[in-house]
Write a structure and sequence with these properties.
- By secondary structure, the chain is of the alpha+beta class.
- 36% of the residues lie in helices and 23% in strands.
- The chain has a single domain, classed as Peroxisomal Thiolase, Chain A, domain 1 (3-Layer(aba) Sandwich), CATH 3.40.47.
- The strands form 4 sheets. Strands 1, 4, 5, 6, 7, 8, 9, 12, 13 and 14 form a 10-stranded mixed sheet that branches. A 3-stranded mixed sheet has the order 3-2-15.
- A hairpin with a 2-residue loop joins strand 16 and strand 17.
- 47% of the residues are buried.
Length: 406
């Protein structure tokens, strides 16, 4: 039995800061963000949300719209680099909020932005081994990309969570993990030492590591599928890359074209790039452009963006996904989208969430991001009045060092 994904859900915070506001406050031309990064807005998480609430808010719709009893879930994996405790996993908090039963394997994975894919692959392989029953798993990616005020990373911030329902005989897409292309190497391109609230980034080196990993996973993927150099792109309908910012997809795809068509001249390579990018990559970009970086969930937010942009046109298509995490680990794999996925796509509601967000001023953004968790001692009045069909759980503060949720 080959397992895969039967449904996907996304949750993003209800606030955002336009890059125009950030550029004005920082005294830089807005084109530096719009053209240089390719981004327009960035999601800002309020003080009454965290990695736990976003994870639960993303996962609950999967249970509700698929009529799944929480006791049916046999594996719950949360991948994050925004954990709220050095010992207790985010997955345990989510298990409690969703009322998932005790006969469930529950754990958290950390491997920078690659952690979501690691959790997904592990869950698919575990469920594929169970041929005598019909186990279900939920894999969640939840993260807050936060950088220091005024740093180069500040305009790439974002926050959000995705949840995927893993089953045998999946309804959305199948995935044969034995054919995946894999790459890993010990590098220091992006890291956050214990005790640091924001990461340390070697930006140029991180991009170099990303492209090195892309080349490595593609080489392994070609070998597993019996493809020659130059045959990869013809075997796929769409390509989705891990995107810490929108223009990273341009850099990645250009590098792939140079690898696949290395014997072509520069003019011919540019022609191939322009045509294939518009057709294969562009449909996946709306999420990162509006939300920013969400670490573990970034490549899967690209998948949600593609599904909503293409709709019925995507049915039956082959999608190549490249997942990268600093440190570094990467994987390139093939998703076969199923026929008849329109109902699943129509229920995602990503565009609706984007349209219903509230715009922050720069001063409000500073206020949100200057306050630590320990300063949240009560359920804020603004949170009480801000309810919709997507926001179901909030963080309410601490009691004897224990995080409280409602």
């Amino acid at each position: 039995m080959i397992a895969g994904i039967s449904d996907i859900s996304i949750y993003i915070p209800k606030y955002y800061l336009p890059h125009e506001e950030l550029a004005k406050a920082r005294g830089v031309p807005v084109e530096k963000f719009h053209a240089g990064l390719g981004n327009q807005n960035m999601a800002i998480i309020p003080n009454w949300e965290d990695a736990v609430t976003m994870a639960a808010n993303a996962a609950l719709p999967l249970l509700e719209r698929n009529n799944i009893d929480p006791d049916e879930i046999r594996q719950l994996v949360v991948s994050t680099e925004s954990g709220v405790d050095h010992s207790k996993p985010v997955a345990s908090f989510v298990q409690g909020l969703l009322n998932i039963g005790t006969r469930c394997r529950v754990y958290e994975i950390k491997h920078a932005c690659y952690g979501g894919t690691a959790g997904l692959i592990d869950s698919i392989e575990w469920i594929s081994k169970h041929t005598n029953d019909d186990p279900k798993g939920i894999v969640i990616m939840t993260d807050i990309a936060k950088y220091g005020f005024g740093t180069l990373g500040e305009p790439t911030q974002g926050a959000g969570a995705l949840a995927l329902l893993v089953e045998g005989n999946p309804r959305l897409f199948s995935l044969d993990t034995l054919l995946n292309g894999i790459f890993s190497k010990d590098v220091f391109d992006f890291w956050r030492p214990t005790g640091h609230r924001v990461p340390i980034v070697d930006g140029k080196y991180s991009i170099d590591c990303y492209l090195m990993a892309l080349e490595g996973t593609i080489s392994h993927f070609r070998t597993n599928h019996g493809l020659k150099v130059g045959e990869l792109m013809d075997s796929l309908d769409y390509l989705i890359y891990h995107m810490p910012f929108t223009k990273m997809a341009h850099k990645a795809h250009r590098h792939l074209v140079e690898i696949e068509y290395k014997d072509a001249g520069r003019e011919e390579q540019e022609k191939i790039f322009e045509e294939s990018f518009a057709r294969m990559v562009a449909p996946s970009l709306s999420g990162v452009r509006e939300v920013g970086n969400i670490y573990t969930g970034s490549v899967y937010m690209g998948l949600v963006s593609l599904l909503e942009a293409e709709g019925k046109k995507a049915e039956g298509k082959k999608v190549g996904l490249f997942s990268y995490g600093s440190g570094c680990g990467a994987e390139f794999f093939l998703c076969h989208l199923k026929p008849g996925i329109s109902r699943i796509v129509d229920s995602i509601g990503f565009k609706e969430q984007l349209e219903n967000r509230k715009k922050l001023t720069f001063e409000q953004y500073i206020q949100f991001y200057s306050k630590s968790d320990e300063e949240i001692l009560y359920y804020p009045e603004e949170a009480r009045g801000f309810k919709d069909e997507f926001t179901r759980f909030v963080f309410t503060g601490f009691k004897e060092h224990r995080r409280q949720y409602a």
